[in-house]
Structures are given as structure tokens and as C-alpha cells.
From TrEMBL:
Keywords assigned: Cell cycle, Cell division, Centromere, Chromosome, Coiled coil, Kinetochore, Mitosis
Matching Pfam families: Mis12
Protein's GO biological process: cell division; kinetochore assembly; mitotic sister chromatid segregation
UniProt cross-references to InterPro entries, sorted A to Z: Centromere_Mis12
Main localization, broad class: nucleus
Coiled-coil residues: 179-206
Family in the record: Belongs to the mis12 family.
Protein name: Protein MIS12 homolog
Length: 208
């Protein structure tokens, strides 16, 4: 059997030519064996009609096996020649022939250097894409951080608005005056807390 892979022929036929030839060989061989068994059985039936015949069934079997071996040797030689002819002239695609699905390779043929340059360009585009994806992720993270900062600023502005409203209720319209007002009230509150703590300590000592 041929050892050439014949991959292009397999692409066209859907099977390798070697597989086809192997199946043909097995089919012929099986037919030869079956034929010899039929011939042997016919000979044995004929012998039954000759009671005086001194040929035993075992001798018939040996003769059948010898004839089968002779036939198989000649068959292998003939099949080898037939296989060579079929693989070279029938089950083969000429080297100058392209299958329809491969016509695109003829239209857009590339040299080895051009193909390598194309591969390098693809690699460069992939790197640029990864860099853009990474930059996009960084921008999205920064945007989320800006949103969080904006939310905090809005809370501070709301706090200032509330503070301004409180100051207006107390007749203070200037922010400087507002902070001064808060500072004074804070100091007064601290003094009150201090006074409460002192009285609490005195009461504790009195009861002790």
C-alpha cells in the first residue's frame, strides 16, 4: 500500500485513496476465501458420489489451502499493480489543479515574507487593542471615582445650604458671620458641658 498521505485528495473525495484501496483489497480477499470454500464444498459433494475414491476430506482441505495460497500470491501481485495505476491516474489530483474552495489562495497568494509581515501586523493590532481596552478600563474607573467625589461635593453643598438657612433664621446673612456665630455657639456649648461636668463631680463628691 502507498504511504503518501494524499491529504489534498482526501479533501476532495472525503476519504483517503489508501483507505479506498484497502477496502477494495479486503473485499476481493473475502470474496476469494468464500469462493474457495464453495469450491471445496462442491468437490466434497462430488466425492460422495464416488464410493471407491480414496481421497479424504483432509486431503481436499490441504489442496484447497495450497490453491488458496497460490491464488492469494498472484492476487497480491496483480492488486499491487492495479493500486499503483489507480493511485497515480484515477484517485489523484494533478499538482496544477486547485479545488474550488481553494481558489481564494490563488487569487490572494502571499509569499512567506508577506505572510510573516501580515502576522506581525496582526500581532501589533492585537497589542493596540489590548492597550485600548486597558485604557478604557482605567477611564471607567476614574469616571466612577469622579462620580463618588461629585456625590460627596453635593452632600457638602447641601450641608452649606442647610447651614445658610439656619443662619438666615437667626438673622445672619454673611458666611463669615455664620462661622463666627457657629464658633460662639460651639464655645457656649463647650462651656455648658464643662459646667455640667463640674456640677456632676461636685455632686458625686458630696454623696461620697
Amino acid at each position: 500500500m502507498s504511504v503518501s498521505p494524499m491529504a489534498y485528495e482526501a479533501q476532495f473525495f472525503g476519504f483517503t485513496p489508501q483507505t479506498c484501496m484497502l477496502r477494495i483489497y479486503i473485499a476481493f480477499q473475502d470474496y476469494l476465501f468464500e469462493m474457495m470454500l464453495v469450491v471445496e464444498s462442491v468437490i466434497l459433494r462430488k466425492l460422495d458420489t464416488f464410493p471407491d475414491c480414496k481421497i479424504s476430506p483432509s486431503q481436499i482441505r490441504k489442496s484447497t489451502e495450497k490453491f488458496l495460497l497460490f491464488m492469494k500470491e498472484h492476487f497480491d501481485k496483480l492488486f499491487s499493480k492495479m493500486e499503483e495505476v489507480l493511485l497515480q491516474l484515477v484517485l489523484t489530483i494533478p499538482k496544477n489543479v486547485l479545488l474550488p474552495e481553494d481558489k481564494v489562495h490563488e487569487q490572494y497568494s502571499y509569499s512567506k515574507e508577506q505572510f510573516q509581515a501580515l502576522q506581525d501586523e496582526i500581532h501589533q493590532v492585537q497589542q493596540q487593542y489590548r492597550a485600548e481596552v486597558s485604557a478604557g478600563q482605567a477611564l471607567r474607573a476614574e469616571l466612577e471615582e469622579q462620580k463618588a467625589v461629585q456625590a460627596e461635593l453635593e452632600k457638602i453643598l447641601q450641608w452649606f445650604d442647610g447651614l445658610e438657612n439656619i443662619c438666615r433664621e437667626h438673622g445672619i446673612s454673611n458666611f463669615r458671620e455664620s462661622f463666627a456665630f457657629l464658633t460662639q455657639n460651639s464655645k457656649k456649648l463647650q462651656d455648658v458641658l464643662k459646667d455640667v461636668e463640674e456640677k456632676s463631680n461636685k455632686m458625686k463628691k458630696h454623696y461620697q
